[in-house]
Amino acid sequence: MGIVVTRKLNWAAFERSTLNEYRQDGLRWMFSHSKMPWESLISASTKALIKHYGITSGTLTIDDSDKLRSRNTTKIAHVHKVKDKSTGGYGKGQEFMFMVIVTNTVTIPVDFRFYTPDPALSAWRKENHRLKRQKVPAKMRPKRPSPNLSHPTKETLALEMLESFSRQYPEINVKIITADALYGTGSFMDKSNQYFPHSQVITQLRKNQSVRCKKGRWTSLKTYFSRSEGVEVELIVRGRKSKKVTMLGHRLEVKAHGGKRFVIALKYEGESEYRYLVASHLSWRAIDIARAYTLRWIVEVFIEDWKSHCGWNTLSKQQGVEGASRGVILSLLCDHMLLLHPEQSARLKNQQPGLPVGCMIERIKAEALVTTIEKVALSDNPRNAFESISRAILETLPNRPSSKHMAGCDLGRQEPTESLKYKMAA
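Request: output the structure for the sequence above.
Response:
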């Protein structure tokens, strides 16, 4: 509730918002030293939501994001060099991955991981890129370092989340798994199907990846699909809007995957180049695969809401590995809590459009104000109750000295010196 009211993960702000009923020292101690099973909280909360909404099936979708930090930070965990998408430059920050389950009723965040790149691998890539620009042959360039288990790749972390979900929620029928082009590898698709044999895994391929054409030769995806005219169809995007797209689909042998995949070339109206979707199961229709892949965008909506309203993206300066992890857990539980709000629950269960996180938070704040007024109005002595609350509010207001106003400061002697007036005359 502190996160909902203040939209930040800040103990001093929590203390003020509760009118000093909860002290920041006690909240900080509970966060850092309590013995509650932090690693199980997300799982327990997810199971409660699954039971509340009667969920039996859904789509798992995975995406990553980042949080820029100070260049000088040393105590915040998982900080490394990341690209600033807004400026195109680089800075220090944290990267994390989320997995959400999208159902016909509700979307729930179910797992997350922090990602830290392997320093040895990063140094090798930098050196390898430098040598490639100098046209040094591959056999003369240094070999790629072996995988470091303490720095798993994003693909490995994604597979860990999928394996964990299959183990913890065996009753859920996962129909589709979606991810962006970063996870468009044969190993990711094959291992995902090991955990969920009947699930359709949909990702993207690069335009230069090789596929086998009818004559048995290997050619790039761009070249292969440029030989045929696409078909214009109406694609229903995320179950709501319909958009015109141009589409082609073929079951092709993908060289990098070592097997046959369903590859779909797709471009929306106004786009000049195709994007290439790839699916693991060949028995689906092309239009169904393209429509299913539009659900991947929902995880991006979740991340945007999470950054804007769930606290961790603002003043989330908890230190150490545990501090970073527990902060994200609290913020995700905040999102879970909003799904249990009576109004939101009633809307979703009756297949009505749910309210966005921002609207839910405004409603909760309004409810808190109404409850406070009701408590004062229905008390035995309303005037005393009102004065008590007024004093509590005034006592919690911050009292910090301003650096703009100079009252009480020694500004020095600001007038000429009599004995030095001859300097002016000269």
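The two ends are 72 Å apart (CA to CA).
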